[in-house]
């Protein structure tokens, strides 16, 4: 009689998950929490969002929330940072696809910012409303303005053939323009400006393009006077 080999059944009930599989599940749970946070923060606002609500929407147990975030504020910051990153990517993509021409590139960027916010109203709420009222996001607004200003400053130096402003004046100009543009777009999104999108974009482009004609700073003027022949 041939010998029958019995299959051994492995006990896998206590076997740990392979590191890659465990990490993948953890990453998926975090992604689900971030998406749930975006949905709730972006529709109900921070005041109407709870840990339980996030976990219910993500279809996860509360313990998985605290495995990833110490509290709701930490989730809010993580969601905001992700949305801001996507917005910056949209603006940089517009920069890369636009011709090497200042007015055309400014128009591409001026379209990309509001376009990103309009495409998903949740983005608009986070970047234009919650950022102004939530203490957890207080430092995020300044950091976002600085990063966007950096993009504009790099473009100004690349495209302006004869920059009449000093580096400090360029920085002040760009910070003023970016901060003002953010406030203007926020006001428009709230329906407090009776203009259409085309009018808004035309205004932003004209404002930004003509800003390179600002007069030189008093320090540069005094230097020019000293260099002028008697």
TrEMBL record:
Signal peptide: none annotated. Residues 27-87 form the HTH tetR-type domain. The keyword DNA repair does not apply. InterPro entries: Homeodomain-like_sf (IPR009057), HTH-type_TetR-like_transc_reg (IPR050109), HTH_TetR (IPR001647), Tet_transcr_reg_TetR-rel_C_sf (IPR036271). Gene3D superfamilies: Tetracycline Repressor, domain 2. It comes from the Bacteria. Keywords: DNA-binding. The keyword Transcription regulation does not apply. Residues 50-69 bind DNA. GO terms for molecular function: DNA-binding transcription factor activity; transcription cis-regulatory region binding. PROSITE patterns: HTH_TETR_2. This is Transcriptional regulator, TetR family. It comes from Thermomonospora curvata (strain ATCC 19995 / DSM 43183 / JCM 3096 / KCTC 9072 / NBRC 15933 / NCIMB 10081 / Henssen B9).
